[in-house]
Amino acid sequence: MENTTVNEGKTIAIISYITFIGTIIAFIMNNDKKNSFAAFHIRQMIGLILLGIVINLIARVANLGLISTILGFVPLIFWVLGFIGVLQGEEKKVPLLGDMFQEWFKGIG
Fold first, then answer.
1. What is the Cα–Cα distance from 55 to 40, expressed in whole angstroms?
2. Exposure pattern of 18-55 as b/e (b: 16+ CB <10 Å)?
3. What is the Cα–Cα distance from 60 to 98, expressed in whole angstroms?
């Protein structure tokens, strides 16, 4: 990826990792610019948000105790890895699910 593309999209990509509202703002900001680096990270963050919601719903319904607590940290750990990727200017996919997030949300960006 070109350094120019990364530099131009880095701010939008960082915004995407700041809560759900930040992801929406980043999506709107990137609609005009169509920066591929920002779009990559927006797709990763949308996947992480949905992963967090699914894990939370499963934890509430199944009431698995400690397992639910441990599973709750998975999206947080993936978020940290994705955010580090943005700061380093890299398109690092989150472990296990990053490829799926890119495929599922390929229309974004």
1. 23
2. eeeebbeebbebbeeeebbbbbbbbbbbbbbeebbeeb
3. 25
Torsion of CA 96, 97, 99, 103, to 10 degrees: 160
pTM of the shown model: 0.89
User: Which residue, 88, 36, 3, is CA-closest to 12?
Assistant: 36
Q: How is residue 74 written in tokens? A: 């998975």
Spatial distance between the Cα atoms of 8 and 47, rounded to a whole number of angstroms: 23
pLDDT in tens, 30-49: 998 899 999 999 999 999 99
Tokens at 40, concatenated: 């990559």
Residue 38: both structure tokens together = 């920002």
Domain map (residue ranges) of the chain: 3-104
